[in-house]
Design brief:
It is built from 14 helices and no strands. By secondary structure, it is mainly alpha-helical. It has one domain. It is globular. The N and C termini lie far apart (56 Å).
Length: 244
């Protein structure tokens, strides 16, 4: 009597996490878009600060969990959550809480998409012979610098950057590492803005969310993004030089 290999789970079960994310995202976009914003933080700032002072550890845990849910389910309010992290916990540990939560949420989306679609999609691409295979092969050869650069300068929406790597078979360790360090500069800047919200509230003003595009901040980010992809460019040029 031979032991047969276990059957893979049904396809609908593999895709259930992705479907849940899409459903929650759609519901959240309708029900929460008017609540997860800067105005809500302004109106409830005294209540939040009072609860933080009385229950610091609980506040930190609830905040990180809520931020993870916002990212994992692609809910509106990620920017407001980053500001809240700075407002409640200061630049440190606020920046650390923001980065850990955002990275964890991104990893959860990555795993859900990879389980539901990624492995089959990656296998289909590998079996193909078209432009898509050449593109994904080029990304895989330079996974870390390319993903790190795209995180530094988010030319694609955050949700898209969580999905594409899962579909083309990027390794989890590379995805998580490049996400954390790639969003670190921008997360640091926005947490810094959040840490100064007390003065903004006192003046009854709105925070400058365009600060990241100011030359003294955008310039170093562009330079870091260029440096990050330099190894991939050098590798491509070397291959071209040695090609017959």
């Amino acid at each position: 009597m031979t032991n047969s290999a276990p059957l893979p789970p049904p396809r609908w079960r593999q895709r259930l996490p992705v479907l849940m994310i899409l459903c929650v995202a759609a519901i959240g976009a309708v029900l929460l878009r008017d609540y997860l914003n800067f105005d809500t933080l302004r109106e409830n700032r005294a209540l939040l600060l009072g609860f933080r002072d009385a229950h610091y550890a609980v506040t930190a845990a609830v905040f990180v969990g809520a931020y993870i849910a916002i990212v994992a389910f692609s809910l509106p309010g990620a920017t407001a959550a980053t500001l809240t992290g700075g407002f409640l916990f200061g630049l440190f540990p606020g920046a650390l809480f923001n980065l850990v939560a955002a990275t964890t949420g991104a990893v959860l989306i990555f795993l859900a998409v990879r389980a539901g679609f990624g492995r089959a999609m990656a296998a289909r691409i590998d079996a193909s012979d078209g432009r898509m295979k050449r593109l994904t092969s080029a990304i895989r050869e330079n996974e870390a610098p390319v993903l790190f650069s795209l995180r530094l300068m988010p030319v694609l929406p955050f949700f898209v950057m969580n999905v594409i790597p899962a579909l083309i078979g990027v390794r989890l360790s590379v995805f998580a590492t490049t996400t954390f360090f790639g969003i670190l500069p921008g997360g640091f800047v926005y947490t810094w803005v959040g840490a100064g919200l007390g003065e903004v509230f006192a003046r009854d003003e709105t925070p400058n969310m365009g600060i990241i595009f100011e030359p003294h901040i955008l310039g170093p980010l562009l330079g870091l993004a260029a440096i990050s992809v330099l190894p991939a460019i050098i590798k491509a040029l070397r291959k071209k030089d040695i090609a017959p």
